[in-house]
Amino acid sequence: MKTTWIKWSASAVTGLMVAGCASYPDQATTRQMAEKMVFEAFDASLAHMKRLEQDRSQQICSKIGDAKLSREEAAEVVKLARASIQYPASGQLTGDWKAGDRLAHDGSGDRIRSGKTEANKQNGALCQNCHALAPGEINVGNVGPPLTGYGKQRGNSEAIVKYTYEKIYNAWAYFPCSNMPRLGATRHLTPEQVTHMVAYLLDPQSPINK
Ligand code: HEC
Predict the structure, then answer these.
(1) Does 81 fall in a domain?
(2) Among 34, 48, 62, 202, which is disulfide-ready with 156 (CB 3.0 to 4.6 Å)?
(3) For the purposes of burial, counting CB atoms within 10 Å of the CB of 28, is it exposed (0-12), middle (13-18) or buried (19 or more)?
(4) What is the number of domains present in the chain?
(5) How far is the CA of 177 from the centre of ligand 1 (A)?
(6) Is residue 185 part of a domain?
(7) How far is the CA of 161 from the centre of ligand 1 (A)?
(8) How far is the CA of 46 from the centre of ligand 1 (A)?
(9) What ranges make up the beta strands (E) of 78-159?
(10) Whole-model pTM?
């Protein structure tokens, strides 16, 4: 009796799975459903709701499943990223490595706590979450490549300074849809803060190059 019941429920589950697969919603519907679900999870009156509106690049990069990025889409993301880059008023792309060192390890700002967006005088950069930094630091992430010895390996030519600034400001200018956040373009970091990050990566005195 018991075995029969198990057999019955097993075939019912299989039947449901097959029915489920047959009626799988298309990509546009799946996206709408997912966005609605996320939207409803937050208090709609709060300022951070703006973050749920995807800009054009984020829409291109948020394809569902394994859908490939086309050559044209990748080119559009790069073009938008390049257009987003702003430089500091001083024109000086290298700032203070000590300030950069602090920011690289600081995760404050822009977080949602108890339903409110954290208000901070300045946001941290938290490169530490994704990158290995100074030699011997163990509390680091590996989502991105190690940045240990970055300046020692590349020098600090004008081209490297410019690349490093632009890469941190909007990583998608060089690698469309990568997992590196668009730190300057989303206004998480100011152009001045990005110059501190450049100094932190390139200055021979910075712990990252020791
Ligand atoms: C959420 C994870 C994440 C955070 C936070 C992050 N990065 Fe990245 N970073 C990546 C990934 C992934 C890559 C590789 C893909 C790419 O190049 O965009 C990368 C690539 C880079 C590169 C290019 C490396 C090369 O070999 O040219 C630099 C430079 C860099 N990150 C610097 C930083 C700095 C500085 C910070 C902090 C201000 C930072 N990243 C924060 C994920 C992250």
Answers:
(1) yes
(2) 202
(3) exposed
(4) 1
(5) 12
(6) yes
(7) 15
(8) 30
(9) 112-113, 116-117
(10) 0.86
Ligand 1-lining residues (CB < 6 angstroms): 104, 125-127, 129-131, 143-145, 147, 164, 167-168, 171, 175, 178-181, 183, 197, 201
Write the residue with the smallest CA distance to atom 17 of ligand 1.
175
Amino acid found at 58: Q
Q: Are 142 and 133 in contact (CB under 8 A)?
A: no
User: Hey, whose CA ends up nearest to atom 36 of ligand 1?
Assistant: 127
Q: Residue 63's pLDDT is what?
A: 80
What length is written for the chain?
210
pLDDT computed for residue 88 by the predictor: 97
* Residue in 151, 147, 185, 142 with CA at minimum distance from that of residue 166: 185
Choice from 122, 131, 188, 198 to test ligand 1 binding pocket (greatest atom count within 8 A of CB): 131
Residue 8 lies in a domain: no
The answer to whether 168 touches 198, Cβ cutoff 8 Å, is yes
- The boundaries of the domain holding residue 98 are 70-209
Nearest 10 degrees: Cα torsion 145, 96, 185, 40: 80
Distance in Å, CA 9 to ligand 1 centroid = 50
* Burial category of 90 from C-beta neighbours within 10 Å (exposed 0-12, middle 13-18, buried 19 and up): exposed
43 occurs within a structural domain: no
Model pLDDT for residues 117-171, shown as the tens digit of each residue: 777 778 999 999 999 999 999 999 999 999 999 999 999 999 999 999 999 999 9
